[in-house]
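Collaborator request, handled under Task 6.
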Amino acid sequence: MTERTERPALPAATHQFVLSWGEMGERWGMNRSVAQVHALLYLAEQPLTAEDIASHLAMARSNVSTSLRELLAWQLISRVPVLGDRRDFYLAETDLWAIVQRIAAGRKARELDPAAAALRQCLVAAGADPALNPLVERRLTAMLEFVERLGHWHDDVLSLPKAQVARLLTLGAGIARFLPGKGGALRRRASA
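Structure tokens returned to the collaborator:
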């Protein structure tokens, strides 16, 4: 018979956030446990040890360790020293813009960059195949141009100061009024 140990109760809002963030993380392709550990650390008032995290989340210590390694790799958390204690303590990044930048950079490196490299290889193969329908090469070129444009846009946006990005977010689709062509003209007519 296994004895249940009492774990410290999380405040209701924290408990709900941990559960919700875990579910959202899964939808974004992240392991649920990793997202839950991140959520707990994000709301924590002070740095926590792996044991604290395991206790709060009723999670196996090995699962917590794996989650912490992944979060460290994404630079979403850091190890911090606590005076008089030899254990590792963990603290989450709380600057939302820094979190978004790190996640976006990681996603680009794991998704967009390999996609662009694969498309370049496909275009080399297409160029070497005289029997290939030219339509295929045009479509591959269009896709590569789109992926590269998206990558350049990502880099440009993430290099902007936080205040400028906040202003862009505030503008939303209204930014179309500053663009030449139909998008801007349509927007101006709709607001008139």
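The cover message to the collaborator said: "The chain is about 65% helix and 10% strand. Residues 12-92 form a domain with the Arc Repressor Mutant, subunit A fold (CATH 1.10.10.10). Please let us know whether this matches your experimental observations."
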